[in-house]
Amino acid sequence: MGIHYDYKSTKGNKLMEKQAKREKKLADKKAKRLAKEGPKQEENKIKPLDPNKPISLDFLTNPNKE
């Protein structure tokens, strides 16, 4: 009878531990994914337009021509 008597009194604690474990696991996965994808995001920065250079029609229609 000890196991059944103890179940309700420890149920809340066990649920909180499971929730914390799940959140920790998700945070670790997210950190690992961000560490893996970090350099790729930095390389994809868009170059700002040069204010001294005029914008031509060719640049507007095909910006990747450089």
Description of the structure:
The protein is rod-shaped and about 80 Å long. The chain has helices spanning 2-43, 57-61. 71% of the residues lie in helices and 0% in strands.
Main sheet record: none
Helix content bin: over 70%
Q: Please give the radius of gyration in angstroms.
A: 27 Å
Judged by helices, strands and strand pairing, the structural class is mainly alpha
Q: Roughly what is the average pLDDT, rounded to an integer?
A: 81
Outline the fold blueprint.
Elements lengths: L1 H42 L13 H5 L5
Summarize, please.
With 66 residues, the chain is an all-alpha fold. It contains two helices and no strands.
List keywords for this structure.
66 residues
